[in-house]
């Protein structure tokens, strides 16, 4: 699986957009970019994922560069409750029976996002 | 729906004791996973299961055993606990296939439980 590089920590003012970068320069053409977050003492929570096109859902937007070597997670209007560790994960596509991937997630250190008033 | 639940929430063991952590999900998911998380680190996969009656080793399987006798339950066992197994344990579940994009099918999201905090003295 491709390795990801994220800044250790970031700050954001409440109500502003939070832009979290992720570098995945060794990503393969068929690997997806996933984002999860973990609020203190809770289990991780899925945010969004994409392959090559930009994606948006009710939680966030994901911008993937054209060469797919990096991506940015955007929380458009950060709130105090968005303070969490954000994990960028590169994940192979699903495989049919006989494959070995089975959707495993490989977590790195993530980015500690602190949203302040 | 309760989602993914874990029992117990907290436990303190002495070295050499055994225990079983229970994970239950009510979403009819095929895949289930056990992770551990040590302070300041990301989650590491211990074991996983792709269906009832099947289990497989993850990244850090030593010292643990698992069983998936029922689709909705995934048990993690510690036969002889060691201080190095002090950690927070998370269970997760997912369905196999997600949406198609560019001819590829992505995996569905994993839903995580609230965690079990285990201390081994």
Count of DSSP-assigned helices of chain B? 0
Q: What multimeric state do the chains show?
A: heterodimer
The percentage of residues in β strands of chain B lies in over 45%
pLDDT average of chain B, as an integer? 90
The number of helices of chain A is 0
What is the chain-wise order of helices and strands of chain B?
EEEEEEEEEEEEE
Specify Rg of chain B, calculated over alpha carbons. 15 Å
Topology of this structure?
The complex is a heterodimer of chains A (117) and B (121).
Chain A: E1 9-13, E2 18-23, E3 32-38, E4 45-50, E5 55-56, E6 61-64, E7 70-75, E8 84-91, E9 111-116
Parallel strand pairs in A: 1-9
Antiparallel strand pairs in A: 2-7, 3-4, 3-8, 5-6, 6-7, 8-9
Chain B: E1 4-7, E2 10-13, E3 19-25, E4 31-37, E5 43-51, E6 54-57, E7 65-67, E8 73-78, E9 87-94, E10 100-101, E11 104-105, E12 111-112, E13 116-120
Parallel strand pairs in B: 2-13
Antiparallel strand pairs in B: 1-3, 3-8, 4-5, 4-9, 5-6, 7-8, 9-12, 9-13, 10-11
Description:
The complex is a heterodimer of chains A (117) and B (121). Chain A has a 5-stranded mixed β-sheet with strand order 1-9-8-3-4, with no helix packed on it. Chain A is built from no helices and 9 strands. Chain A is globular. Chain A has strands spanning 9-13, 18-23, 32-38, 45-50, 55-56, 61-64, 70-75, 84-91, 111-116. Residues 96-100 of chain A have low confidence and may be disordered. With 121 residues, chain B is an all-beta fold. In chain B, the strands form 3 sheets. In chain B, strands 2, 4, 5, 6, 9, 12 and 13 form a 7-stranded mixed β-sheet that branches. A 4-stranded antiparallel β-sheet of chain B has the order 1-3-8-7, with no helix packed on it. Classes of the chains: A mainly beta (117), B mainly beta (121). The A-B interface holds A 30, 32, 41-46, 49-53, 87, 91, 93-94, 102-110 and B 4, 31, 33, 35, 40-45, 48, 50, 56, 58-59, 90, 92, 94, 96-98, 101-102, 104-115.
